[in-house]
Amino acid sequence: MRQTVDGALFAQMVIHGAASISQSKQQINELNVFPVPDGDTGTNMSLTIGTASAELCKKSCTTVGDAAHITATALLRGARGNSGVILSLIFRGFAKAVKDKETIDGRDLAIALDFGVAAAYKAVMKPAEGTILTVSRLAAAQAAAAAREDNSIEAVLDAAIQEGHAALADTIHQNPVLKKAGVVDAGGKGFLIILQGMLDALRGLPIPAGDENQEVPQQKEKANFEVFSTEAIKFGYCTEFICARDTKKDPEALRGFLSALGDSLVLVDDDEIIKVHVHTNHPGRVLEEALTYGALQTVKIENMRNQHTEILAEAETETPQRQIAPPERKYGVVAVAAGAGLADVFQDLGVDGIISGGQTMNPSTEDIMREIDKTPAEIIFVLPNNKNIIMAAEQCIPLAEGKKVVVLPTKTVPQGISALLMMDPDRSEEDNVAAMEEAIRKVHTSEITYAARDSDFDGFAIKQGDYLALTEHQLFGTDQDINTLLDRLAHADTQQNAEFINIFYGEDVSEADAQNTLQRFQEICPKAEITLLSGGQPVYYYMISAE
Predict the structure, then answer these.
(1) Closest CA relative to residue 131, chosen from 14, 31, 20, 30
(2) In sequence order, what are the residues at sequence separation of 6 or more whose Cβ sits closer than 8 angstroms to the Cβ of residue 66?
(3) Model pLDDT, residue 35
(4) I want to staple 106 with a disulfide (CB 3.0 to 4.6 A). Which of 123, 156, 238, 498 is the partner?
(5) Which residues does 196 contact at the CB level (< 8 Å), separation at least 6?
(6) Rounded to an integer, what distance in angstroms lies between the CA atom of residue 206 and that of residue 186?
(7) What is the rounded CA–CA span in Å between residue 221 and residue 233?
């Protein structure tokens, strides 16, 4: 039973955990309550911890504190979706607990897990039971109890996982939505898969083979010299020479002499010359001995410590630096949107930066931060336009340098557009936020997509390929005929009482079908002013806003 782990092993544990969830991400995706093709939880958690795995593959971690810091920093940048953000918060708290640790034992692990859970709970405004938060909290509590009985890190991690599985099984009873769907929490499941992968690495089990979609570290095109320190170079001079064989001295005697003065020795000879490569701290003594064999024909001596320092300096200059645009005006706006048509709408309304993303393709915190950095404004409003992107956007707030970031809680693209229309460059920040949030509350969004798998939810028997209608992300109805669903949505009170209706049609909808939908809504909703726009969005055939 392993008692402790060092930095190198902890890094391998994280890499193993990332590979484990990558292999199981589709299984986690299928736990989503609605059978819509969003693929959020498993994909987001896999991509999030995958950033840490890729970073750890480039580094040499001598302490657990170093490895945990690298992991937490990478997770923060790569956090995608709510599940990915919560995972990053857990590892951030974990890293703070072990920042000064060279190795950790079971007690250290239990304390670090507790720190991680506390960080996650603190960041979530309204923590809900029956989620990854519940699973991680109970797993951490059991880790503390186990450490009092057996302080080996293997025993403590195993106990945490076992308790986590019991907590996961209970999520179906704690969360009414999960109970209706008959599934356990996807985020909690993903968290335990990562922990199990870390335990498997601890036990020396082979890392899971990647699937065809797994993001794996690419083979290096050149060596990573950052894993070595300049001080670690034992013999500082790379010495190469060719000397003539003017005497009868045996080259093997020279080999023995040079072996005592350095390493990396290569000596070849023929009847006329001796060619030598050796690393040594005494190149003068090497050359003096060589002269006893014959005249020197070529000599090259290089200071490897200086070379290493120069390489590291070059590597630092090659590292992409944040390009932060200095403020030129008071306000700027960054928005998330998927689809060329939607991007055009936001650009026409004056948005500074568009992040491509949405359902099935949640952008990371780093993706959002990149657009914030490029925006030349003092105050930057961020429109996530998806409920699963809000938390990732909020992680940008403390990362902004010289700017203030305000994240508006837009859960749909229509909400983002309405909020943007209410922004006034002459108003105060507080008045703008109030007006934009009021606009968000007035927008009602309906969406039509398709079922990615068979499901039985809330009285609906859903078959793979059926059309699904959602209102405010709640299931409105299903049908095999999309026009039947559109008619039902048009007759709903939300549309019947609306003054304005915007219909955004997706990339899989023809212009003729879109015009037919417009005519249906005009006939069924004669009191509303209706606008048809090409959104070009994937996944959703239609997004319909009513105000």
Answers:
(1) 31
(2) 7, 59
(3) 54
(4) 156
(5) 17, 20, 161
(6) 25
(7) 23
Structure tokens at 515: 């015009």
Pick from 113, 109, 117, 110: nearest CA to 5: 109
Q: Which residue has the tokens 């809680």?
A: 409
Question: What's the CA gap between 96 and 77, in Å, rounded?
Answer: 17
pLDDT at residue 228 greater than cutoff 50:
no
Q: What are the C-alpha distances in Å from 234 to residues 90, 226, 237, 352, 506?
A: 40, 16, 10, 53, 63
Which amino acid, one-letter code, is at 351? V
Share of the chain above pLDDT 70, in %: 89
Bridge partner list, 471: 446, 474
DSSP letter string, 308-324: HHHHHHHHHHHSPPP--
* E strand residue ranges, 417-528: 444-450, 455-457, 460-462, 467-471, 474-479, 500-505
Query: Residue 54 has which token pair?
Result: 């890729």
Alpha-carbon distance of 71 to 92, in angstroms, equals: 8
Q: 351: which 2 tokens?
A: 């948005």
CA distances from 529 to 307, 399, 419, 503, 524 (A): 71, 42, 19, 11, 12
Cα of 415 vs its chain's centroid, Å:
26
Question: The pTM is what?
Answer: 0.71
And the tokens for 499?
Answer: 């003054």
Strand arrangement of the beta sheet that strand 467-471 belongs to: 474-479, 467-471, 444-450, 542-546, 500-505, 529-534
489's CB contacts (< 8 A; 6+ apart) are: 446, 448, 469, 471, 476, 495, 544
Q: Cα–Cα distance between 113 and 141 in angstroms, integer?
A: 9
Q: How far, CA to CA in Å, does 218 sit from each of 58, 73, 222, 311, 316?
A: 11, 21, 11, 21, 20
Joined together, the tokens standing for residue 339 give: 């689809």
Is the pLDDT at 39 greater than 90? The verdict is no
What 8-state DSSP symbol labels residue 445?
E
CA distance 184 to 198: 22
| Contact assessment for residue 373 and residue 324, using Cβ atoms and an 8 Å cutoff | yes
